[in-house]
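Weekly sync, protein design subgroup
Attendees: M.S., D.O., the rotation student, P.L. (late)

Item 1: inverse folding check
M.S. brought a backbone from last month's batch and wanted to see whether the design step gives back something sensible before we order anything. D.O. pointed out we never logged the input encoding, so this time it goes straight into the notes. Structure tokens as presented (374 positions):
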């Protein structure tokens, strides 16, 4: 039997659009590097999601690119043409078949795209290289190319609706194109897309408006729209907490269904732009003031930690790495078997846990990312 102290994790949540989420647990979006060469969803991905969708209220998929020069990862699935709809539908049905809402994360990698994945056409807000790819100087997008990409986010939203998803999440986090427009590091434009913090918000808001417009036009059933953002950047100049609190304050009035912060640790404190009397997540929840549900995330492994996230005032809590290591997390908590939750990865468990090869390879190679048993 479930322990009383975890019951709040299992309380239904009703979104503004009347959609009911059966509990407070979300599977965080995680790239799995396993799509087919042509960008279609693979059987392996279907199996990986089927294994993890039983229990959680919402599954946010790995990101999908909205246009060819936005592909950020090998084995990333495509959302940029109507031919992809049947595969996208299989994925939505696999997730929904296990009882979770399926949300497609829509993305453009901008300057973070490996040149070989975008045939050399690496683009961004401005011609400023990232710290991660210092040798790759992106090309600054023209005004009409920016308009095209905004429409591409809308087109992928239409495909998500046609493929039967319950919603889309706009990927404005982790240093990719939407964040590149918001960041004073990557956006040095002096036109309507850059300058003051308000002007740096122009592209993110234009994407939000286009996605909302397309959903209003095409969705026949309630369709959720979420927005994900990273609160701070490590560079100077870079996004600081005060920029983010302004963005959050604006996003909270856009009629979105949720805001999703991207954090590696939900307990982390601000670096710059807000004092460290509160965590980043607490600052964000306080700025939102209940206008829209917030998803907290980052190093949640135990149900006590998940409850702690909800206690900040966030309505939902996302689990990423933990659901890779423990696909049965939710049912174990529901059954009072939380002591059986696995919080480390054994080197023998790739097949048992249905983890695609390239994802497994990166997990094993990148030390410190996942807790791997010796
Ligand atoms: C393998 C892997 C792939 C990820 N891919 C994405 C992604 O496609 N989109 C995204 O917004 N975040 C991505 N993330 C970040 C996670 O959504 C999450 O914010 C982060 O892992 C911290 O949560 P956790 O401690 O529960 O894993 C990824 C994380 C991992 C581990």
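Designed sequence read out in the meeting:
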């Amino acid at each position: 039997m479930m322990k009383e102290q975890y019951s709040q994790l299992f309380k239904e949540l009703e979104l503004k659009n009347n959609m009911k989420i059966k509990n407070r647990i979300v599977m965080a979006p995680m790239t799995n590097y396993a799509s087919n060469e042509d960008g279609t969803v693979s059987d392996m991905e279907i199996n990986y999601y089927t294994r993890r969708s039983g229990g959680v209220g919402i599954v946010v998929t790995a990101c999908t690119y909205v246009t060819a020069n936005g592909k950020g990862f090998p084995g990333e699935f495509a959302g940029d043409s109507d031919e992809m709809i049947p595969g996208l539908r299989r994925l939505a049905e696999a997730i929904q078949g296990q009882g979770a809402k399926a949300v497609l994360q829509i993305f453009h990698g901008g300057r973070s795209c490996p040149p070989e994945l975008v045939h050399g056409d690496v683009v961004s807000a401005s011609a400023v290289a990232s710290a991660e790819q210092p040798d790759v100087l992106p090309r600054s997008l023209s005004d009409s190319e920016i308009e095209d990409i905004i429409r591409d986010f809308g087109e992928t939203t239409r495909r998500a609706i046609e493929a039967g998803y319950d919603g889309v999440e706009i990927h404005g986090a982790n240093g990719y194109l939407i964040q590149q427009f918001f960041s004073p590091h990557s956006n040095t434009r002096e036109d309507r897309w850059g300058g003051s913090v308000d002007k740096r918000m122009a592209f993110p808001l234009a994407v939000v408006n286009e996605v909302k417009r397309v959903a209003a036009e095409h969705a026949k059933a309630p369709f959720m729209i979420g927005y994900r953002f990273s609160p701070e950047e490590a560079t100077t100049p870079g996004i600081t907490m005060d920029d983010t609190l302004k963005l959050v304050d604006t996003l909270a009035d856009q009629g979105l269904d949720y805001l999703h912060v991207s954090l590696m640790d939900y307990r982390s404190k601000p670096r710059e732009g807000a004092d460290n009397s509160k965590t980043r997540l607490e600052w964000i929840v306080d700025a939102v003031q209940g206008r829209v549900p917030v998803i907290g995330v980052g190093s949640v492994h135990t149900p006590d930690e998940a409850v702690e996230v909800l206690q900040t005032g966030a309505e939902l809590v996302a689990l990423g790495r933990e659901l890779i290591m423990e696909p049965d997390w939710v049912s174990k908590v529901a059954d009072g078997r939380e002591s059986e939750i696995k919080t480390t990865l054994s080197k023998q468990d790739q097949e048992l846990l249905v983890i695609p090869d390239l994802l497994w390879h990166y997990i094993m190679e990148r030390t410190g990312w996942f807790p791997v048993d010796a």
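Discussion: The domain at 4-365 is CATH 3.20.20.70 (TIM Barrel). Residues 28-31, 62-63, 105, 171, 173-174, 228, 262, 264, 297-300, 319-322 surround flavin mononucleotide (CB under 6 Å).
Action: P.L. to compare against the previous round before Friday.
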